[in-house]
Each structure stands twice: as C-alpha cells, then as structure tokens.
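Sample 3 of the quickstart, ligand flavin-adenine dinucleotide:
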Amino acid sequence: MMRLPPFTYVAARTLAEATAALAEHGHAAMLVAGGTDLYPNMKRRQFEPRVLVGLRGIRELSGVRGSAREGVTLGAGTTLSTVAAHREIATHYPALATAAGLVSSPQLRAMGTIGGNVCVDTRCNYYNQSFEWRRAIGFCMKKDGDTCLVAPGSTRCWAVSSSDTAPALVSLDARVRLVGPGGERTVPIAALYRDDGIEHLAKTREEIVTDILLPPADEWRSTYLKLRRRGSFDFPVLGVAVAARFEGDVVRGARIVLGAVASLPRSAERAEAALIGRRLTPEVIATVADLAAGIFLRIAFGHAHSQSAIGLKRPSRASRSRRSTRYRSRASSSAWTRRSSCTTGLQRFCVARAMKSLSSLAVWARPSCRS
Ligand SMILES: Cc1cc2nc3c(=O)[nH]c(=O)nc-3n(C[C@H](O)[C@H](O)[C@H](O)COP(=O)(O)OP(=O)(O)OC[C@H]3O[C@@H](n4cnc5c(N)ncnc54)[C@H](O)[C@@H]3O)c2cc1C
Ligand code: SF4
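Result:
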C-alpha cells in the first residue's frame, strides 16, 4: 500500500491567508483543492511538499455566477460535478459541461475542482508510476532523474497535458483570474499553459487561480469528445474541443483545440481556418479532420523539433553515451522503434476517429435544430 508522507495542512479561510502561507513556506508549500490528483501524486513521491495550503475553506472560490448573456464566472473551487450539472453551462457552454462530466469517476468529480483540473499535472507513462517503479528504471528528468526516457536525446520533458476541461475552456475563449502577492491579473486561459512537461503553467508558485471567466455565449455552439482506454473512467488519450459560430448554415467562427497530444492544449489553427465561410458538408469535415490530425503528426514526426528530441530518430552516439548504464541497456534500437511506432499509431487512430465526430456540428447547422 502506498502511504502519504507526513505534511502540515494549513486550512486557509481567505485568499489573503492562502497567499501569505504560500509566501511564508516558499518551495516547501503547495496548494491543494480537492486533492484528487495531488494526493495520489504525493503517495508516489512525484511531489514532496512539507506544507499543503488547503483552498476548500475559502468561500469566495466556489460557485457559479452570471449568465450566458453577460458571461459566466466559475469560482476555481467549484466542483466538477457542479460544473457538469449546471443548467446554464450545459445549455450554452456544452463543451465545458461535457468535459467536466467526463473527468474520472463520480466520486472524484464530487471532490475535484475546476481550478484543480485546469492546473492538473502533465502525465507520462514513465512518470505516473510508484516511487519504486521509477527508481527501478533510474528515474527521469521530470522528477529525481536527468534523462527523458521517452526521448533520450531531448533537453525537455514531453509529458502530456491531460486535463479534460482545459481544451474545452480554450475553445470557449475563457479567461482565468489569478491572485498572488503582486496583486491580481486576468489572462486568456491559453496563456496559462506552457509547452513544457515540467513547467507547464505560466504562473508563479504563489499565484492562485481564483476564477474562470466564460465570455457571453452569443451564437457560439460547442462540443467535446474524449477518447480513453477505459470507458468507465480514465484520463484522455485524446480530447477534442470544438466551438463554432454559424450564420445560417455557414461557419463564421471556429476554434478546434486538442488535448492530450502535447504538453499544453493545442489549437488546430489550419483546421479552424478551413472551416470559416464553409458549410459543414462531409467533404469539409473530412478535410478539417485531416488538418487537425496533422497537428499530432507534425508533433510526432518532429516538424517543429528535432526528431531525436522526441525519440523518433535514434539519438546520437554521443547522447547515448551520456545515459546511465542501466538505461543504455534498455535503449536498444528495437525498443525505441517499438515505443515510437506504437505511440504514433495509437494517437493517429484516435485523432482520425475523434475528428470524424466533428459531423455532430452539422446537426446544429440544420435550421430545425437552431432555436
Ligand atoms: C483515478 C483518477 C482518474 C482521473 N481521471 C481524470 C480524467 O479523466 N480527466 C482529468 O482531467 N483529470 C483526471 N484525474 C485528475 C483529477 O482528479 C482532476 O484533474 C481533478 O479535477 C483535479 O482537481 P482537484 O481539485 O482534486 O485538484 P488537486 O489534486 O487538489 O490539485 C491539482 C493541482 O492543481 C493545483 N491547484 C489546485 N487548485 C488550484 C488553484 N485554485 N490555483 C492554483 N493551483 C491549484 C494543485 O497545487 C495541484 O498541483 C484523475 C485522477 C485520478 C486519481
Ligand atoms: S516525457 Fe520524459 S522527462 Fe517527461 S515525464 Fe516522460 S520520461 Fe520523464
């Protein structure tokens, strides 16, 4: 059985108390909301805070305010089950309600918060393992080691953003309010994410996400599709969030955001552009699906990065020799080829299948379905 390490719990009652506790304890402290991700990670020693600053007692962090007409504000401490069941959100921001309702299991959605979900740690098969498992393979650079086991030649971590609500919120053009020792700031949620598996959030350790602000829904329609290995509950292998605005049956605005393909939610900009001014015919949908799927393939085949950086090209002799003896014996040519082709094949299949479901948007374009 994995046990939690000892820690001190600071039950903050106000945001000021929480920020003061974070400032006082520095790197030894972390925030905890529902704890559904952080506590399991602490059991695996992926995080080792000595102090946890609890957000559950801060009243101003919970609740949903506003309306689709003027925009909706969600307190970061609002549970996922509340978000999923909220009538205004389900009606006018269905991508978000669907994404929240697909996170994990009912028990975890009753504890887990929207703030915790947008800040949830990136994931990787070599990292989301017990301490003993990770020690047996010599650890990796995300925690306790210095080599990336997915891409041994890489100088960065490629762990994957696995939040369900993050791509949905990016597609809805949401903003986040952050409060820290330097005051308050509000940024587009897309700007909260960095393309780095370790430093994946563009915020300081002392900043707390306090609210998520949804713009007026106007004519935007949205949907979220999730592929996962276990249908009952699991993190996404792929999340596809789509929001579109129609004039008649012609698309006038489109946002397509993929989750679980990179260290941050990734917008499919070329696919979005291909939708504008078009009717959602099967041919257009197929083209857009191919363009969106191309995002993953570009990442996977190292269009933007060197191939060895993501492990698809065998690392150089010099970089191989930098690795530990234990790992070197695992990194035989066949092992690395098997690993890369298996991952790519699975993701390719998932992207293609999920993007075909874009056709659900066509239903909205039919006059009989529009209110
Ligand atoms: C078995 C299992 C299955 C899961 N399946 C999914 C899934 O399918 N999809 C998915 O998206 N997630 C999944 N999760 C992860 C997790 O349950 C959810 O992401 C949940 O929403 C996290 O919210 P929380 O309030 O529990 O966050 P916590 O665990 O309390 O915190 C998560 C992280 O966010 C930080 N944090 C929390 N609140 C704030 C805030 N207000 N400001 C700044 N930082 C903050 C914490 O410091 C921590 O780093 C799963 C977890 C488990 C154990
Ligand atoms: S991508 Fe590499 S460094 Fe990051 S968690 Fe996985 S193995 Fe570790």
